Amino acid sequence: MQRTPLNGRPEPEVIVNFVDGLSYNKGKMEAAIFSGELFPPKPAVKAKDSFVAKREDVDLIVRELEIPRAQAERALAETKGDLEKALLDLVSPGHKSGDAR
């Protein structure tokens, strides 16, 4: 994006030499930035196994155990939607859904 000053000539390309011997070329720097070579994009963060609990199951746990909705949703997510296992996990402190009976 070059500006044209009042005299009609385009703005000269900026080249700066630094004390350490490196130089900066405006056109090449802009091309590197816009192409993504200079700052590569961050790797995409893998989404957790998103699980959406059934509203009826969450409502049942919230109503019967009188716990926050977020805690009920978390319990259902940990058991992959198994209501029975989620209830056992919530009412039995030592019980976890993966434990053998």
Give a short synopsis of this structure.
Helices cover 40% and strands 6% of the residues. By secondary structure, it is mainly α.
Descriptive account of the structure:
A hairpin with a 5-residue loop joins β1 (15-17) and β2 (23-25). The longest helix is centred in the middle third of the chain and has 11 residues, at 55-65. This protein starts with 14 loop residues before the first strand and ends in a 10-residue tail after the last helix. α2 packs across α3 (69-78). It has helices spanning 26-35, 55-65, 69-78, 83-91; strands spanning 15-17, 23-25. The chain is built from four helices and two strands; from the N terminus they run ββαααα. With 101 residues, it is mainly alpha-helical. A two-stranded antiparallel sheet has the order 1-2. Helix content is 40%, strand content 6%. This is Nascent polypeptide-associated complex subunit alpha-like UBA domain-containing protein. Pfam families: UBA_HYPK (PF19026). Residues 54-90 form the Nascent polypeptide-associated complex subunit alpha-like UBA domain.
